[in-house]
Design a protein that fits this description.
10 helices; alpha/beta; six-stranded mixed β-sheet; about 240 residues; 2-enoyl-CoA Hydratase, Chain A, domain 1
């Protein structure tokens, strides 16, 4: 489901669960990998990618979310705790004490796009795959903490087209719009992301400082706009119900 490897100072987290749709079981497996990363010491950086060449992550596990028997015994886990556990995981990723790069090697929809935006940088496949917040297409409102994440990470016009118009961004369009920082072909994407992670890894030597500044950017009383940032809102999502 989640494979975590380390080579030198670079961790590579590979999602390996088909379309990598999000349910409670998937959240907990991902969280366990983050536990391992945070328990390490010294310079390091993280690359997150997918084993599926078509999907980075295809968003929420809708079949599980709509199942009448999504209980603790369901393979997807307990649906009742998903929201809080998922939001907490995203807040951990956005404030990870080491640099992080999302190697987007396929479609990143909904929660998959959200995951990528919680990373410090994004490198996307140039020839195939879309990045899209597709909640409007599904008749769903985007939770306020998630909107805060998008607003802090995206330029204003890109933000509106993404969250309100559900635009599907190709790699080249996503680069032009400021969603990703770099493009690569499918053969070179992971290697390029790992090379960039190795360049950034020394910043992870001072983990408390690296994390603390992320909290200044994205946490409570965030520097941007002097409002609560997405990490705080994700961590306290119960305060932001409509």
């Amino acid at each position: 489901m989640i494979d975590l490897e380390q080579e030198g100072e670079v961790f590579t987290l590979t999602m390996d669960e088909g379309e990598n749709r999000w349910n409670t079981t998937f959240v907990r497996a991902f969280s366990a990998a983050i536990d391992q990363i945070e328990a390490s010491e010294g310079p390091a950086a993280l690359v997150t990618t997918s084993a599926n060449p078509k999907f980075f992550s295809n968003g929420l596990d809708l079949a599980w979310a709509q199942s009448p028997d999504a209980t603790v015994e369901h393979p997807g886990g307990d649906r009742d705790v998903f929201g809080s556990e998922f939001m907490t995981l995203m807040s951990r990723i956005i404030t990870l004490p080491i640099p992080s790069i999302a190697a987007i090697n396929g479609h990143a929809f909904g929660a998959g796009l959200m995951l990528s935006l919680c990373h410090d940088q994004r490198i996307m496949r140039e020839d195939r795959g879309f990045a899209c917040a597709n909640e409007m297409q599904l008749g769903m409102r985007i939770p306020i903490p998630e909107l805060a994440l998008f607003r802090h990470k995206l330029p204003a016009n890109t933000f509106f087209e993404t969250v309100q118009l559900a635009r599907r961004w190709t790699g080249p369009a996503a680069l032009e719009a400021g969603i990703v920082q770099q493009l690569a072909d499918s053969q070179n994407l992971l290697g390029l992301a790992q090379a960039r992670a190795a360049e950034l890894a020394p910043l992870g030597a001072h983990r408390k400082t690296f994390k603390a500044q992320k909290e200044n950017l994205f946490g409570e009383n965030a520097a941007i706009n002097e409002i609560h940032g997405p990490a705080y809102m994700l961590r306290n999502s119960e305060k932001y119900h409509d």
